[in-house]
Amino acid sequence: MLRQLKFNFLAVLFWVLSYCIFACVCIRMLQLHFNFLHHVFMNNSQHDHITINDTSYTLLDVESLAWKKLVNGSVKKKNGFRTMCVGTISEKKTAALRIVVNRKVDEIQKIIYFNTDNRSRKFYDLQKDNQISLLFYDARQRVQIVVKAYATLHTNDVLKLDRWKATSPQARLGYMTLEPPNTKSEKPTLGYEERFSTIKPTDSESDVFQENFAVVACVVYELEFLYLDFTGNRKANFYYENNVLKDGFWTVP
Ligand SMILES: Cc1cc2nc3c(=O)[nH]c(=O)nc-3n(C[C@H](O)[C@H](O)[C@H](O)COP(=O)(O)O)c2cc1C
Question: Does domain 43-251 have CATH number 2.30.110.10?
Fold first, then answer.
């Protein structure tokens, strides 16, 4: 009887110990796996960080920070990232640049949106070649963000309609020019009816011009973050595939 009890106890002990060892091995393997992934994808070590305004940022933190700054720019009118310089490839294969308003940033999908006139040169350029570059710089934050993306043009869908509805009467004037943007004129011109220099167009007056309005969605595949600091500048580059961060590393500023 005593021997049987002792045997049972040892058997239970054996199984408990085996289970514990198995669990420990599994946990360690998972740890190693995640450390490996983190290291491989981010080429990063725990001690790799930079300090911005007394806050420490790892490489992954910098990536999140960049998107947070872009989101802030899209929602805060006075933020330095509210506007961006958009680069397209012109018909003559030269770099074509202009400023637009950062209207919306989807940090999950890695998409940056702006509105434009579908008769404009940038729209024409993007129809021919949808590669687009976006340049942001906020002197107050001393941060530059350069983005490369593929543009998707929305001219006649729910997104375009929603964005048009959300556009103010003042902003709609930009789409109410009788001739396309950049058309030669004999004298200085507003492009739209002179009376709208003093009164706002009504919804029905502006809705007629909705067909000129388009939304450009820029699907980001590359993001460069540069922080200017008197103790030394810092830079990191990030690369995305299908909205997923695939690579990132610190670079020489
Ligand atoms: C502060 C600022 C904001 C602007 N925002 C926009 C905008 O959101 N969308 C746009 O199409 N043009 C905007 N423009 C005008 C463009 O810079 C540009 O002159 C116009 O779109 C024609 O460009 P394109 O002929 O190269 O296509 C803005 C200009 C400035 C200075």
Answer: yes
